[in-house]
Design goal:
The chain has about 280 residues and is mainly alpha-helical. It has one domain. Helices cover about 75% and strands about 5% of the residues. The chain contains eight helices and two strands.
Length: about 280
């Protein structure tokens, strides 16, 4: 009997050793897999951080100022053409939606109130003849500026295309990344709508109202170099139809700036989440 008990002990010990070895092997394999996944995730996060930071920098240094410049130039055209009191068409409050000078909600509220006053003034002016208006061509060219923001999101697009988003373990970050394409599409839709209005409605009306050849040249120079070309006076007939088209440009361009500012804020928040996961 004693000999039999000793054999069972050996069997139990051998089985325990085998099980322990298997568990150790599984643990080593799982740890190796975890480290591989962590390394892959960190590589993805590094690529995303570089792309999104580049997009945010370009958005704040070039695209938002350019679109805001077009909005303010449109306001200045209307203000000077209608001989409005100084500051009536000042949209500087909207800058707070992307440069941190004031809260987003406050900037949007002020702009909304300005619109009500602005639309009332334009409505009154449309009821009376206006006549010829002379303005700097660079100002008109700036007001006609349109462009479509195309950020560097190669790594994000690749991640979404191949289903690699699951490589990112943080749910909040996955949700933030998934929402970016839709937010970008909203901003680009507003840009296209504004561009269509300028190309199909506003610019033809301006060309018909006076000698706008120089304005077209200034417009493209502004678009390509973000700087107005040589300035000279341009005289045109400010009809009610043209006034209405200029007035419509204001809310359209404000929508562009607003959507791009929201996208910039989304980029910044996503970058904060990415950096929290970087090691």
């Amino acid at each position: 009997m004693a000999e039999t008990r000793i054999q069972w002990k050996r069997v139990a010990a051998e089985v325990a050793a085998i099980v322990f070895g298997i568990l150790i092997a599984f643990w080593i394999d799982a740890e190796w897999q975890r480290r591989q996944e962590t390394r892959a995730e960190q590589e993805v996060l590094a690529s995303l951080e570089a792309d999104l930071q580049s997009s945010l920098d370009g958005l704040r240094s070039h695209w938002l100022p350019m679109h805001f410049g077009a909005l303010q130039a449109t306001g200045d055209v209307l203000g000077q053409a209608l001989d409005l009191p100084a500051g009536t068409m000042d949209f500087s409050g909207l800058r707070g939606s992307w440069d941190g000078t004031s809260p987003d909600s406050a900037a949007m509220t002020v702009t909304s109130e300005d619109f009500e006053s602005f639309l009332t003034i334009v409505s009154r002016k449309r009821s009376t003849p206006i006549g010829d208006v002379t303005l700097p061509d660079s100002l008109i060219g700036a007001a006609l500026t349109t462009a479509t923001y195309d950020p560097t999101v190669t790594s994000l697009n690749a991640l979404l295309a191949d289903g690699g988003l699951n490589r990112i373990r943080d749910r909040g970050l996955r949700a933030a990344l998934s929402s970016l394409p839709g937010q970008l599409a909203d901003a680009q839709d507003e840009e296209r709508a504004a561009r269509d209005h300028v190309d199909r409605r506003l610019r033809p009306l301006l060309e018909a109202a006076g000698d706008m050849t120089v304005v077209n040249l200034v417009h493209w120079n502004w678009l390509e170099t973000f700087a107005p070309g040589p300035s000279g006076p341009v005289t045109f007939q400010l009809s009610r139809e043209l006034l209405g088209a200029l007035a419509l440009r204001v809310p359209q361009q404000t929508a562009v700036v607003t959507e791009l500012a929201l996208f910039a804020n989304a980029l910044e928040e996503t970058l904060e989440l990415i950096r929290a996961q970087r090691r």
